[in-house]
Every structure is written in C-alpha cells, then in structure tokens.
C-alpha cells in the first residue's frame, strides 16, 4: 500500500536541544498509527512539522509520492493535512462557526464572507464530531470539553487525507471519549490516514493499527499493534522495563490534619465537608468540570468561599491568598501547567525557589547559592532532565515542565499537598516517578490530596476517594470498597444498579 | 430587557452621547440645531477616520503611536506639493498623501512583521522619526494659507448635498472599513490575530502579515487625514496634530475596543470619536474654562475603561444547579 | 577672534523668528567680527530652551539674546550663564529681571495694548462686541498686552470685550476656539488675536463660517501669513513691529555689552541704524512703535516676512 | 550550534560562566554604543571634555532617569505608567500652591513627594483594585493629572520659591557633582539592588513572565504591582522637586511629553516592553547615552528634533540589529 504521507530523515533542533534527529514515518490510508514516546520525545514537534508550523532543519516530506514542503500552516492544510493539536488553539471572542472556518470561510460571488452558508456548514460539521450545539454562540461561553469538540470539527472542516490527533482525549470526559473513538472509526472507513498520539495504552490498543515509538528524538521501533504487547511498547519507550505501575505503599494513617467543613461558593460548589489524615492519599474523582479544581483553589485563597471553615492540626485557619496557604503548609500544584504552574521566561532554579524564597533568602535579599542547592535537591529527586538549572523552563518538554512545577511546591516543605491532575499529559516513566514520589511523601507523613480524572490512577493510588459532581460531594469510598463501576456511576449521576 | 440593552456597549455609548448633547443643549440650546450638529460631526471627521485605522491595529494586539506624526508628514508633503506645483489637481495630491501615509504605515508594519520588534517600540521610534523628517524636509518652516492654492483649501469644505466633502469622506471611510472588518477574511483575521495570536498560526493565518496590513490601513487613513487636516486648517508645520495620537487611542478606548486585542467594532470606534468630538466642541460653547477640558477627557477615559471592563468581565461559570431548578 | 552671539528663539521654524535672524545676520555683517548662532528648541517649551542655553554656556559664547518661552523658568540657567561671564539680554518675550542684563521690548506694552483695541475700534464706529483670542497660555507677552488693553478699554466707547479664549498657539485649537466664539456670541463684531498663529486661524475660521464682513479679525500677525486674509476682507488691518529690526537691534545691543557697555537704569545702548535704546528702572527699553498693515501696504511687506 | 546532552542526574547549575554571559548581554552592546558616542563627541567638539560642561550635561537626563528606574520595574512587571509627566506637573503645581501659603523648603519637599505618592495610589487602585489595563488607565490619568494643574493654574505661573529650595535642582554636593547627579547615582544603586538582589525584584520578574503562576506561587501580585505604581508616583514627585527647583517656577505645561522619553530610555536600556526581562545597569547606560547624544548635538547647535530622530533610529536599530545579525549568522551556518 502506498503511504498517504511519508517523512524521511527529518531533523529539528531548538537552541540547546535536538528535538528530532533523522526520523522517518509513513502514514497509510484507512489506518490508524499510534505515536508513543516519553515526554519530550519529540512527538508534538513532529506534528508541528507535519502541519507547517515548524520548518525541519533537514529531511523530506512526500505527499502521494511527490516531494513537498509546508512553509505555512495553510500550505499543509491545502495538501490535506489537518491536526487537532495538543493545546486547544481557538479564539474565545469569535463564534463557534467562525472558529471552525477561520482561514477558509465560504465566500459569496463578491468575494465577501457568506455568513449563512458558514453557519449551516458549521452545524453539519459539529454534528459529525458528535456535538449538537448552536454554532453562532461565542466560544468563550463553552466549557473546556466542548471547546475541544470545536477543535475536532475544525479539523474535519478541511477535506483532509491525513488527520493528526495529539492527545485528543486528555480533556474529554468518558462519554465524549467514546464518541471520539467512533469518529476515528468513521474516518478510517473513509480512507483517511490517521496519526494518533496518546499516553493512554488502553486506547492505543483499542483503536490503533500500527505503532511508532520515539525516544529522545529518534525513532526506535515501528510495526503492527497486533504484533506487540504493552510491555514491549513500554520497554521501547523508556529503554528499560518499568516496575509496578502504582507503587502505593501501605502507610499507617494518622490523626486528621486538615478538616474542611461547610465550604460553599455561590456558583461553584456547596456543602463540602471532609477530613484529611496524616499519611493519607485522598483521591478526588469526578468528570471534567465537576468543580474539583475550583474547590481546591478556594482552599488556598484564589477563590473566596462564601462560607465554611478549615482547621489545620485542629486550629482554625483563615487563608486569604496563596502566600498565606503556603506559609501554613498547604500547597496546591495546579492543573494548568502552562498558565498557572511554570513561569516560562524564568530559569528552572528560579521557578523552583519562587514559593520558598523566604527560606532561601536572608532578610529579603536573595542568596543564589541557597537557591541552586534547593533546586538541585528537588529536581534530582524528581529525575528532571535538563541541560542546566539556569535553562529557561520554556525549553523543556511538557513532562519535564510538570516535574519542575511539582518540585517547586514540594520545596516549600508542605504539610498538605494538593495535586491537581498531576500526571496529565505525562509519559509512563515520569508518571511512575510522580506516583512513587507521592507514595514516598505519604510515607513520610505528608497528607496528599490527588485530583484525577483517570480511574486507574485514582484506584491505584488513593487510600480513600471522594467523588464530586456539579459542585457537590456525591460519594465517599474506602480503598477496599472501590470499583471502577461505582466511581463512574457516582460521577455521572447514574443510580446504583439495583 | 432594559438590562440586556444596557449590556450592549454601543448602545450605552449612544445613550451617553445623547445625554451629553441634551445637557449641553440645556445650557446652550443652539447646540442641537441640525447645522451645528453637522458642524460638530464635520469637526470630528478626521478623528473618526483615524480612530478606524487605530482600531484595526489595536484589534491585532498592536498599537500605532505614530499616526499623528504620519498625518503631519503626509500633510506637510501634500502642502509642499501644492506650494511647489499649484496647478497639480487635487486628486493627485490626495492620492500622494494617501500613498505616502500607506508607505509610512508599511514601514511600521514591516518592522513589526519582519523584525518582530514590539509594536509600541516601533511606533515610538517612528513617531519621533516621522516628525523629525518634517523638520529636515522644511527646516522647520511653516507653509501658510497664502502659499496654498484655493482648490487645495476648498476641497474638504465644498458642499455636497448640504454637507461638506470632509464629512462625506469620513462616512465613506466608515462604510468601507465596516465592510472590510465584517465581510472579508482580512477583517476576521484581525480579530483572530488579536484574540489569540498563537492559535492564529495554527489556523494558517500569517500573524505578521495580518499586522502588516493593519498598519498599512492605519497608515493609509493617516495619510488621507494628513491632507484633510492641512487643507482644513490651511497651515502645515512640524507640530501639527502633536499629541493627537492619544486622542485617537482615547476614542478607541471609549468606543470599547480592548487594548488587549481581539475585541471591538466599527460603530464603537465611531461613537468613541464622536463622544470626544462632542465634548471638545461643547466646552467652549457652554463657557466651561478651556483649561478644564483636559481633566474632563481624562475622567471620561477612566470611566469608559471601567465601564467596558465591567461589561467584559466574565460572569463565573455556574456549576451548581440550584435545588429548586432541578 | 570673532565674538559669538547666540540668538535663542522660542522655537525654530517660526516665520517671525526667521525674520529676526535675518536682521541679526545683517548686524553681524555690519559689525564684521561677530558670528551669530541662531538656535532654539523645536517646540515652545522652557525645558527645551534650557537645554539649548546649557549647550551655549558649554560653547563659551560671548552673549545670549533670548526670546523666552517662560519668564521665570529660564532664570536659573541664564544666571549660570552670567556667572560664567556671558552677557545675557532678552528680547521680544522677556525674562524676569534676575535672569538678564536688559530686556528689549519690540515696542512698549501700553502702546501695543492700545494699538490692538484701536485697530478693532477704528472699524467699528458704532461699537459692538469684541472677543480676544490669546496665544499659548504660558506666553509672557500676550497677557501683558491684554492687561494694557483692558486699561484703556474705557477710551473706546461702545466696545465690549465679551470673552478671552486661549488657542495655545496651535492652529487647530485656535480655530476651534474661534468657532466657539462665533457660536456663543452671535453679535460678535471683531476678534482681536495678538498672536501670529491665532490671527491666521481666526481669519480662516471666520472665512469658513461665512462671516466675512460681519466679523473683523485683527491683532498682531505676519504680513506674509495675513496677506490673503486682508485681500479676502476677513481682516481689515493688523499690526506688528518689524522683526528684522528687532533681531538686528538685539544683536547690536548684545555686541555693545560684550564690548564693555554697562546695562543699568538710564543707560543708553547702541542699536546701529535703529539708534539707541534708553533703559528704564527695570533695565528695559522699547525699540519702536508697532506698525499697521492694511490692504494698501501688506503685499509689499509680505515679500519680506 | 553545540548540542547539549540531556543527562538524567547532576544537572549543572549553569552552562556558561559569568564572563561569557556578560559578554553576550545587552548591556555590553549598550556599553559599546555609549563609548562610541563618548569618543565621537570628544572628537566633534572641543568643549565636550570639560568637567563642568559634562556636569551641566547630566541635567539633561537625571530627572527622566529617576523616573525611568521605577518605570523599568513597572514595565518588567508587564504594566506601564504613562502618567508620570503629568504627575510631575501636578506635584509641581501643588508645591507652587504651597509656596503661596507660605510653606518652607522641607514642607515643599513633603508636599511634592506626597502628591506624587497620592497620584501613584490613584493609578495603583484603578489598576490593581479594579483590574483595569494600565496603559489605558494611565492615558486617562495623564490627562486628568495635568488637567488638574491646568484648572488650578490656567495661564498663570507659580514662582517665588524660597532660595533654599533651589538647591535640589541647582546645587552641588561636591565639586562638579550636582545634587541631581548624586541622587541619580544613589537611586541607580538602590534600584539595582532592589531589582536584582531581593525577593521583591524576583517577584517583579515572576509577575512579568506569568502573572497567574506567580499568584499561585504565593506572590502577592496585587500588592507588588500597587507598590510599583506607588514607586513611579514617588519618583515622579522626586523628579518634580528637582525640575521645579531647577526651573524656579511652575507652569501646567511643565515636563510635557516626558512620558515617552522615559519609556524610550527604559526600552533602549533593554527592558522588554512585553515584561519579564531587563536590568537597571541597562537603563543607566541608556540614560547616559541619551544624555550624551542630546548634549553632543547641542554643542554642535543641532536642533533638538534631529536628536530625537537619532534617538528614534537608535531605539529601533539597537533592537533590530541583533535580530538581523543573528539571522545572517544562521543563514551563513547553513
Ligand atoms: N519551541 C521550542 N523551543 C525550544 N525547545 C523546544 C521547543 N518545542 C519543543 N522543544 C523541545 O523539543 C523536545 C521535544 O518536545 P515535544 O513537545 O515534541 O515533546 P512531546 O513528545 O510532544 O512531549 P509531551 O508528551 O510532553 O507532549 C523537548 O526536549 C522540548 O524541550
Ligand atoms: N467553560 C469554561 N470557561 C472558563 N473556564 C473553564 C471552563 N471550563 C473549565 N474551566 C476552568 O478549568 C478548570 C477546571 O474546572 P473545574 O474546576 O470546574 O473542573 P474539575 O472538576 O477540576 O475538572 P478537571 O480538573 O478534570 O478539569 C477551572 O480552573 C475552570 O476555571
Ligand atoms: Mg506533546
Ligand atoms: Mg480541574
């Protein structure tokens, strides 16, 4: 079979980093190729080269046997390559329909935009993507998952022969993920060549036909999915076998450390009551948009609750801003790494020490030596990969940025650490490192709250699980009584099977 | 219903302008005579034209501080052409002013596009350079009314259907820009580039080139205004319209164009300019000390941003379904 | 060794000062051993003039003759110049007494104040409403003249000064202020603009409003800029002293001081072909009477300045 | 380009030494430019290399530079303050008014500084309290503050400052070193230390690079920004004292257009107008460059507007040249 698109000998460097070296990849019509690799392996870079956003330093791209180049995103789209990117790249102030057709809007015979046709076509595309909402509303009024559906509809709006999906399910809920799988099947039946990037092995084995593995910017293996096992893939990715996936240690649970009672907010959540004990990992499960992040942020003073109280070690605590939270020993590792976590533009060590400056400095004056020592300690504990501590965090891959972000809050030596989707978009190796570290922290007597939307992670790591839906707590489970089915039912509001 | 109406920024501005006019008319009734209102519009025409150009630039998340300097240079060159060749037909002079303005705008645009220099730095630099060029060109000398031909001076004043050409030109500009903004891919690209430049790249929109075109537009309109300004006031010198760039930006801000890019409308820009125009024209008439004008403009700008920010502020996403609603 | 005399003006590029420079160059030629440095800021600000004066001090010029943008703000800089042995005089627009050795008025303030209202009154035998369009709010001389004018207002029966507005020496602002005047005072018969920028803008605004013949614009202006408006009838007459003579005289006086003449009350300083100026108690002197231009002579002078 | 191997552990602190970083920095480029201008000036005019003349020349930039230091911090934090020149006018007007009431020199200083501070509070409250964009707010307060001076003064001037008040703008601390220049040096050191050596400075950088993440990291974003606007207000008040003392009088048009000069100085000094980066030594060098250009051209009796063309070209070219150079080098490498 002839490939729909073939890359040969592609290389790409960024200052100080060789992101891709001499990689080749072919995508075939009517087939789904899974691209896997650790964080920073170069997957997204390849996607950006395929869609004309980055220019390769060397190598060639062949479409239908003819050598081509994609100097701009537009030229790639014209050649029939379309992508759903890892970050949703849309326009809040424009309507859904405009977001879908921006750049190739239908025109009338005067060359002016034909708004009627635009909206009608958008409606049809949304329907194909499995969404049925009004295309004339402004994008900013949509939830995060719906925005992702718009991105998918946009990718469908181009008559493409190659469809690329870079971690498309990371922001979607259970139901939407299944609709996406159905869509992939339909595209496949239409004869499209699909490149599917994911860190979730279950879905790779479910929908992919072929696989390609990247490690440190090189291609280390490819073939048919039918011929490999999950362990083989993992070994190829990390170059070694990965041990127990959820290294949960059994820790003696101590006294309550944090008690939250009667927390409520006019629009986001209400009636939140729970205790967190020493050495415990408390999982918070829910569908995306259940209000977990909003609630956690109210614990550290980002949003103000309208009522409620926190006790830390029995003492009533008033927290008005994150600085007070950090000082009292409650830290929150936010979910949106790029926006709330990493400070792109500052070097790694300054990122790590930012919330701990009062400890590394003396009477308000910086002490660089202390800062480097602190940063060195925590980044090496998390197995960070970087050229130097003075490097801008912006030049790290997503997973390594996440490690910097976690290191930053661990360095404050907290009593309670809240991790919001700590392994979102992280590769298997790093994920295991984060999980091992979480267990370690709990064993040392820290109390951990882990917000996660991944059932295996919740089940594997938590001592106890609280399920939230629409701003309320709808279920509490001890580790022993946990089943995936119970969690899903509670989160989706489906009554217990009789 | 009322609350919904009030949420519309443009309607709010229309209301504010009406209230203002009524208040002025209460102190000084002749102000609302149609001829006088037409005169106020005519007086504001140039600001309207300029505000539309600035709007395009601000929409793309840039700013053009050099518009007034561009106006002054194009205007000066138009005046010099007229002084040197009094026989030159007006359309030729008009076109050369527009062309020069466009070229100056392109210089800004090219620096922003090709060299990636932040817009505020580029236009801060060209602001002084363009004005300095006028000095080098003229040695600081003025071109006065008696050096200009009658045709040159009378063009913007000529009556067409009872309204001066100057006003007509601004009406035509408003219509043309409205079409560009709402019905052409370039117009939509302005919003995309300003709303999310990062995403625009992924969408296949060339961010730099879109900005370049926005600067071309603002330059072209500044060039047009250059001729209009010089012929209307019948004088050209280094400092004409000095500091006017801030009035232009103020008009945009009052008109609800977000300085962060991606939000704004043609009616907004026009109304913002009119609001300032009414205030400027009214103060001398109602005997408010001209010295108070500046402070009043300042208060208006601050109030306008505060009001617009309120309107823009996202109302929190409601997760909780209230018990009674279930 | 040539004597260096700096002629510092309010701003470069203004026709009036260019003419004064012409006179200064004339004086330099006549004297032989003088180099005139014609300089000034590009906008009419005191800060700009101070920078210029500082660089003149650094160049060790022999004398500075300045037309000031601000009576007081230049004093410290000019004092420093005098401390370093530089002769300092002001002309046209004066500096406070401490900041100069003498001041040369183009004419005397009372004469000018009288002249501007007389120009308006001569064309209004039956009296009527008159408004003043002044210049930059921070200019020294306009305000003095308007004060002098108000002192003698009683001598002109039936002349009502109804308003004073400020055009800030900006063409557009002056234009708009004039429009405001025309709106607010339907019976306005004359506008007095004792500023060369304002008078042109006012004449233009009157022309645009179609009020030629009803409103007479007068005041102080340059013949070259006003010739058209005199011809159209927007202005029947206006006055100004001769700036060429002014630049000439200032240079001559500076030269006299450099050569050892002393500026003290009662002293007479030489002004070449313009005769001599006698200093009053404030060390001020007046050059000559203002000169009236009308349809009969404006064309001729328009060629000169 | 050197490829660096990503090692799993033992990440080095830094890849290059202090010297290498200094050589590649913006400041060294500015330093070279400053030296060239100094040499050029000395060759062009025999009057340039005279201690008293150089001392006089410092007055050209010391007042703007004082504000530029605070402005640099504001711009690094991702905001801007265009109202500084108007604050000078209002503070000066207030001092002039105080003179009429018979205040003496120490009281005048207090008045000048407190009005500057009060204006800073107004800006700070509007920007951090109401969360409005600073560029628009300060365009508004720019009109408002100067407008108030115009309402108070109209076409009048305040004069009659006490003799001792003139020391701030005209006095000398030692030999040719004026009070203003000494103040400039002292402030440069203070701001340099605050920005580069303290937690506060680090917070300013963090906010400029990512405000949300800084907030999540426990930085009191609102408070830091508020403080920065207070500082620019205070510096404008201080500059107002110096300028008023130097001029010996107050008019509402005092310091007109200085805001652009200050911003130019800050940007020329290598502070990113988008926030997040820049240094005080850069700003100091930019101040010296602008001062020397103004004075050098002044000695040759070149009109001020020609100097501003030069500054405008300098502004664009110092930013453009490194970009062009890097591009050319990359093209050559291929
Ligand atoms: N714009 C950039 N500038 C500098 N380095 C970059 C840039 N983009 C990517 N890199 C580097 O290139 C390498 C590959 O990054 P890429 O984003 O392709 O990884 P990835 O495989 O998509 O990882 P993840 O699974 O975390 O998304 C990383 O080392 C990253 O730091
Ligand atoms: N439609 C939306 N508009 C604006 N912000 C949104 C929207 N949807 C989600 N967010 C933001 O995304 C974050 C996650 O939302 P939320 O806290 O409600 O969900 P959650 O239960 O934490 O789910 P998850 O963390 O799995 O996304 C919040 O910071 C919220 O502000
Ligand atoms: Mg990726
Ligand atoms: Mg969340």
From TrEMBL, chain A:
One of its GO terms (molecular function) is ATP hydrolysis activity. PROSITE patterns: ABC_TRANSPORTER_1, ABC_TRANSPORTER_2. Transmembrane segments: none annotated. Keywords: ATP-binding, Cell membrane, Membrane, Nucleotide-binding, Repeat, Sugar transport, Translocase, Transport. Its main location: membrane. One of its GO terms (cellular component) is plasma membrane. Coiled coil: none annotated. Residues 5-241, 251-495 form the ABC transporter domain. Pfam families: ABC_tran (PF00005). It is found in: Cell membrane. It is a peripheral membrane protein. SMART domains: AAA. Belongs to the ABC transporter superfamily. This is ATP-binding cassette domain-containing protein. It comes from Ensifer canadensis.
Automatic annotation (TrEMBL), chain B:
The keyword Membrane applies. The lineage of its organism: Bacteria, Pseudomonadati, Pseudomonadota, Alphaproteobacteria, Hyphomicrobiales. This is ABC transporter permease. Keywords: Cell membrane, Membrane, Transmembrane, Transmembrane helix. It is a multi-pass membrane protein. The chain crosses the membrane at residues 12-28, 40-59, 92-113, 119-139, 160-181, 212-230, 251-279, 291-311. Pfam families: BPD_transp_2. GO terms for molecular function: transmembrane transporter activity. It comes from the Bacteria. Its main location: membrane. One of its GO terms (cellular component) is plasma membrane. It is found in: Cell membrane. The keyword Metal-binding does not apply.
Automatic annotation (TrEMBL), chain D:
Keywords: Cell inner membrane, Cell membrane, Membrane, Transmembrane, Transmembrane helix, Transport. Signal peptide: none annotated. Its main location: membrane. It is found in: Cell membrane. It is a multi-pass membrane protein. The chain crosses the membrane at residues 28-49, 61-77, 84-103, 109-128, 135-153, 173-194, 226-248, 254-275, 282-299, 305-325. InterPro entries: ABC_transp_permease. GO terms for cellular component: plasma membrane. One of its GO terms (molecular function) is transmembrane transporter activity. CDD domains: TM_PBP1_transp_AraH_like (cd06579). It comes from the Bacteria. Coiled coil: none annotated. Pfam families: BPD_transp_2 (PF02653). Part of the ABC transporter complex LsrABCD involved in autoinducer 2 (AI-2) import. Probably responsible for the translocation of the substrate across the membrane. The complex is composed of two ATP-binding proteins (LsrA), two transmembrane proteins (LsrC and LsrD) and a solute-binding protein (LsrB). This is Autoinducer 2 import system permease protein LsrD. It comes from Ensifer canadensis.
């Amino acid at each position: 079979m002839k490939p729909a698109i073939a890359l040969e000998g592609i290389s790409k460097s960024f200052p100080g980093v060789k992101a891709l070296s001499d990689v080749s990849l072919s995508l075939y019509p009517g087939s789904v190729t899974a691209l896997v690799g650790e964080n920073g392996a170069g997957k997204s870079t390849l996607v950006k080269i395929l869609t004309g956003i980055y220019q390769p330093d060397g190598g060639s791209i062949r479409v239908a046997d003819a050598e081509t180049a994609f100097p701009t995103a537009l030229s790639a789209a014209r050649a029939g390559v379309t992508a759903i990117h890892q970050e949703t790249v849309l326009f809040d102030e424009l309507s859904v329909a405009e977001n879908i057709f921006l750049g190739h809007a239908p025109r009338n015979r005067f060359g002016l935009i034909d708004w009627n046709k635009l909206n009608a076509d958008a409606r049809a595309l949304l329907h194909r993507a499995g969404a049925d909402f009004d295309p004339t509303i402004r994008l900013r009024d949509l939830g995060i998952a719906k925005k992702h559906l718009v991105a998918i509809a946009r990718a469908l709006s181009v008559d493409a022969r190659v469809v690329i999906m870079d971690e498309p399910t990371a922001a979607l809920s259970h139901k939407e993920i299944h609709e996406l799988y159905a869509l992939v099947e339909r595209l496949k039946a239409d004869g499209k060549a699909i490149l599917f990037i994911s860190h979730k092995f279950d879905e790779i084995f479910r929908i992919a036909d072929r696989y390609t593995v990247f490690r440190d910017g090189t291609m280390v293996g490819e073939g048919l999915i039918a011929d490999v096992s999950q362990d083989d893939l993992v070994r190829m990715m990390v170059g070694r076998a990965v041990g127990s996936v959820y290294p949960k240690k059994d820790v003696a649970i101590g006294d309550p450390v944090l008690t939250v009672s009667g927390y409520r907010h006019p629009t986001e959540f209400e009636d939140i009551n729970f205790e967190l004990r020493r050495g415990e990992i408390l999982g918070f499960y829910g569908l995306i948009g259940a209000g977990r992040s909003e609630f956690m942020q109210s614990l550290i003073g980002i949003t103000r609750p309208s009522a409620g109280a926190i006790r830390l070690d029995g003492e009533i605590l008033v927290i008005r801003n994150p600085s007070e939270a950090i000082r009292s020993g409650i830290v929150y590792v936010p979910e949106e790494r790029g926006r709330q976590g990493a400070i792109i533009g500052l070097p790694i060590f300054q990122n790590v020490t930012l919330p701990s400056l009062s400890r590394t400095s003396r009477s308000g004056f910086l002490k660089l030596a202390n800062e480097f020592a602190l940063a060195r300690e925590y980044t090496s504990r998390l197995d960070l990969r970087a050229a130097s501590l003075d490097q801008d965090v912006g030049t790290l891959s997503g997973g390594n940025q996440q490690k910097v972000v976690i290191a930053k809050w661990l360095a404050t030596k907290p009593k309670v650490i809240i991790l919001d989707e700590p392994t979102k978009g992280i590769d298997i190796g790093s994920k295991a490192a984060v999980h091992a570290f979480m267990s370690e922290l709990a064993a040392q007597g820290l109390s951990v709250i882990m917000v996660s939307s991944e059932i295996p992670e919740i089940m594997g790591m938590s001592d106890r699980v609280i399920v939230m839906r629409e701003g309320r707590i709808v279920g509490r489970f001890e580790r022993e009584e946990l089943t995936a089915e119970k969690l899903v039912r509670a989160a989706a509001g489906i009554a217990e099977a009789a | 219903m009322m609350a919904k109406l009030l949420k519309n920024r443009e309607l709010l501005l229309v209301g504010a302008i009406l209230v203002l006019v009524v208040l002025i008319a209460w102190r000084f009734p002749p102000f609302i005579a149609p001829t006088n209102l037409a005169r106020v519009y005519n007086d504001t025409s140039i600001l309207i034209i300029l505000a539309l150009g600035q709007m395009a630039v601000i929409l793309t998340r840039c700013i053009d501080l050099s518009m007034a300097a561009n106006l002054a240079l194009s205007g000066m060159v138009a005046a010099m052409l007229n002084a040197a060749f009094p026989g030159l037909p007006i359309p030729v002079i008009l076109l050369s002013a527009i062309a020069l303005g466009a070229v100056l705008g392109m210089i800004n645009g090219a620096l922003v596009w090709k060299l990636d220099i932040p817009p505020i730095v580029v236009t801060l630099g060209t602001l002084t350079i363009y004005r300095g060029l006028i000095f080098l060109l003229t040695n600081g000398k003025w071109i006065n009314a008696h050096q200009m031909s009658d045709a040159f001076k009378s063009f913007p004043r000529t009556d067409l259907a009872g309204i001066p050409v100057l006003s007509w030109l601004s009406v035509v500009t408003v219509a043309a820009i409205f079409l560009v903004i709402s019905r052409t891919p370039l117009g939509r690209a302005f919003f995309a580039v300003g709303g999310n430049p990062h995403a625009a790249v992924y969408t296949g929109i060339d961010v730099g080139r879109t900005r370049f075109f926005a600067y071309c537009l603002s330059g072209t309109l500044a060039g047009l205004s250059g001729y209009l300004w010089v012929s209307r006031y019948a004088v050209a010198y280094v400092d004409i319209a000095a500091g006017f760039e801030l009035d232009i930006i103020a008009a945009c801000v009052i008109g609800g164009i977000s300085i962060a890019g991606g939000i704004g409308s043609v009616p907004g820009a026009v109304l913002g300019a009119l609001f300032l125009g009414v205030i400027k024209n009214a103060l001398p008439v109602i005997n408010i000390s001209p010295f108070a004008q500046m402070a009043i403009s300042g208060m208006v700008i601050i109030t306008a941003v505060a009001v617009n920010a309120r309107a823009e502020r996202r109302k929190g996403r409601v997760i909780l379904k209230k018990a009674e609603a279930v | 060794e040539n004597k260096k005399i700096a002629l510092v003006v309010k701003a470069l590029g203004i026709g009036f000062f260019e003419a004064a420079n012409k006179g200064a160059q004339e004086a330099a030629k006549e004297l032989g051993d003088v180099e005139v440095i014609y300089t000034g800021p590009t906008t009419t600000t005191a800060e700009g003039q101070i920078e210029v004066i500082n660089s003149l001090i650094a160049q060790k010029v022999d004398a500075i003759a300045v037309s000031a943008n601000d009576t007081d703000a230049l004093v410290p800089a000019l004092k420093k110049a005098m401390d370093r042995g530089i002769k300092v005089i002001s002309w046209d627009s004066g500096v406070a007494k401490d900041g100069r050795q003498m001041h040369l008025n183009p004419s005397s303030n009372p004469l000018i104040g009288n002249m501007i209202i007389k120009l308006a009154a001569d064309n209004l035998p039956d009296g009527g409403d008159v408004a003043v369009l002044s210049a930059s709010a921070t200019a020294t001389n306009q305000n003095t003249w308007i004060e002098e004018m108000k002192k003698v207002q009683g001598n002109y029966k039936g002349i009502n000064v109804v308003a004073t507005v400020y055009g800030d020496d900006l063409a557009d602002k002056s234009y708009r202020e004039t429009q405001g005047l025309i709106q607010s005072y339907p019976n306005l018969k004359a506008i007095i603009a004792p500023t060369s920028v304002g008078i042109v803008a006012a004449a233009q605004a009157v022309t645009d409003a179609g009020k030629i013949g009803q409103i007479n614009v007068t005041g102080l202006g340059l013949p070259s800029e006003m010739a058209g408006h005199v011809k159209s009838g927007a202005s029947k007459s206006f006055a100004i002293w001769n700036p060429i003579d002014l630049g000439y005289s200032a240079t001559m006086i500076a030269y006299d001081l450099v050569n050892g003449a002393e500026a003290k009350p009662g002293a007479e300083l030489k002004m070449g072909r313009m005769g001599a100026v006698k200093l009053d108690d404030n060390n001020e002197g007046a050059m000559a009477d203002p000169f009236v231009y009308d349809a009969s002579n404006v064309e001729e002078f328009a060629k000169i300045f | 380009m050197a490829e660096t191997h990503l090692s799993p552990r033992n990440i080095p602190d830094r890849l290059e030494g202090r010297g290498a970083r200094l050589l590649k920095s913006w400041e060294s480029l500015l330093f070279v430019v400053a030296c060239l201008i100094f040499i050029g000036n000395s060759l062009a005019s025999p009057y340039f290399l005279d201690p008293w003349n150089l001392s006089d020349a410092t007055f050209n930039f010391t007042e703007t530079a004082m504000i530029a230091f605070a402005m640099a911090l504001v711009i690094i934090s991702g905001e801007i303050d265009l109202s500084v020149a108007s604050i000078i006018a209002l503070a000066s007007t207030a001092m002039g008014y105080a003179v009429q009431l018979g205040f003496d020199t120490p009281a005048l200083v207090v008045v000048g500084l407190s009005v500057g501070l009060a204006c800073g509070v107004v800006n700070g409250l509007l920007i951090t309290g109401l969360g409005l964009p600073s560029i628009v707010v300060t365009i508004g307060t720019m009109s408002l503050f100067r407008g108030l001076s115009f309402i108070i003064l109209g076409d009048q001037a305040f004069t009659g400052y006490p003799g001792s008040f003139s020391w701030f703008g005209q006095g000398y601390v030692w030999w040719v070193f004026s009070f203003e220049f000494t103040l400039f040096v002292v402030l440069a050191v203070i701001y340099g230390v605050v920005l580069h050596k303290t937690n506060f400075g680090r917070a300013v950088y963090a906010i400029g690079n990512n405000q949300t993440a800084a907030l999540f990291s426990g930085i009191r974003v609102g408070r830091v920004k508020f403080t920065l606007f207070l500082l620019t207000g205070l510096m404008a008040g201080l500059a107002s004292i110096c300028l008023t003392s130097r001029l010996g009088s107050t008019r509402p048009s005092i310091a007109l257009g200085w805001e652009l000069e200050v911003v130019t100085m800050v940007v020329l000094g290598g502070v990113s107008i988008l926030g997040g980066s820049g240094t005080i030594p850069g700003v100091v060098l930019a101040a010296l460059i602008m001062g020397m250009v103004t004075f050098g051209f002044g000695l040759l009796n070149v009109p001020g507007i020609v100097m501003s063309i030069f500054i405008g070209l300098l502004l664009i070219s110092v930013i453009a040249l490194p970009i062009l150079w890097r591009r050319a080098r990359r093209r050559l490498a291929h």
